[in-house]
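Quick look at the format.
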Amino acid sequence: MITTTASAQFTPQVSVAFVNTTQLLEAFPEKEAATQQLVALSDNYKKELELMQNEYNKKYSDYITYQSSLAENIKLRRMQELTELENRMQQFMELAQEDIENQEKAMLEPLKQKISEAIHAVGVERNYTVIYDLANPGIAFVSPSAIDANPYVKQRLGIR
């Protein structure tokens, strides 16, 4: 027969907390500066793309206007030019998006690292067992003294 006091000895004290890393990130003054830089970069790319689009529209309009009077080989060359310009615009948009994403990551990663380190420090200082992140489903911190239940679950399941 197991007594209540004996089972109470094996019940670990659990302390759970939560954070919202999105709110923490937004609170950094550096985040606003990064956002402004990214908006400026995006605006520059949009202007460049607009110039390309204007060039395309002019060439397309000229082609439509004069296509009936053009020799077949010139029509083909103009169509190839339009296709190449379309491809350049598509490639430009992809590279611009990739650059913006890379710049954002480079600017925000140090802030995210600071947040992660602060969460870990608070978890240890306040003796939390677990800290959940409400912004990104998952656990932001697990106490080093937490018990790994995998062996017990495997045993229960009859697997190794």
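Next, a different chain entirely:
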Amino acid sequence: MFKHGILASVAGSIVLSLLTTVAESAQASTLVFSGSGATTTTAFTDFQTAIGGGSRIGWDGVRLDGTDANPETQVIDPGKTVVIPVNRFLGAGALFSDPYAVSGDGFASVNPGTAGEFPAFSPQNTFVMFDFNNGQFEDRFIEQSFVLPGTTTAAGTRGFGAIFLDVEDAASSSIEYFGTTTKGDKVSLGKYFVPVGASGEAQFLGVLFDQPIVTEVQLTVGTNALFSFDGTTIQSFGGEDLANGVDLVNTDDFLFATPTAATLISVPEPTPLSGLSLAILGMVGFVTRKLAKR
């Protein structure tokens, strides 16, 4: 029995080692930067230094009065809130999956229930998603892919970070990083949660990789959209209600290493490894059965 256990253990270790080698080949080493409240600025600055400056989107260049540089920017509330097109920040290397909103009053103009809740990290504009379905507030995601600055050519970045405003629920807000395999498939590189803080405080979360492997990020921003807008009608979600699991969140500055040609993830063919693993396990089973008959 003792020999059986040793043999099974050794074989299991071999299989686990092989599987671990393959898993690690699809990953890159990471360094996480995070801060909340008084430590937010330090975390932001440290990350900016680590990426060598990079591209910073502070939203303050977006005009809110109908004279924005991109003629497709749509005014929701003149001088206060607009919707920007997906290509508004191509110059920085960012391409969004949907139009998102920029506001100069913390979105109080479209949701009075949040007035004063989101002091800007870098005055004064902030940035958030909204729900396109009138009266619904389920869309809580901001998705951004990376392109070579000034083009629509897909690219990768070594790191991405963002300022979040008023995160008070540890599970409400996060950033998930994605890469692209050599076969063109999208693969998650990890999901990281934003640290919490006191009401009205800013938080920062950024992750640095050792190569430009990140081709897309998805930010989960709070538990609900602040408002819905179907192109003509605005409907406010209302105020935050932490006691009932409602954590409303906003974002400010985005910061990322200047996009370059992406490093694609090489994923080994599973068949040879699977065959080898099964062969080893089969051999263990055969020998174990033989020993058991003695």
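Confidence is low (pLDDT under 50) at residues 1-26.

See the schema section for token definitions.
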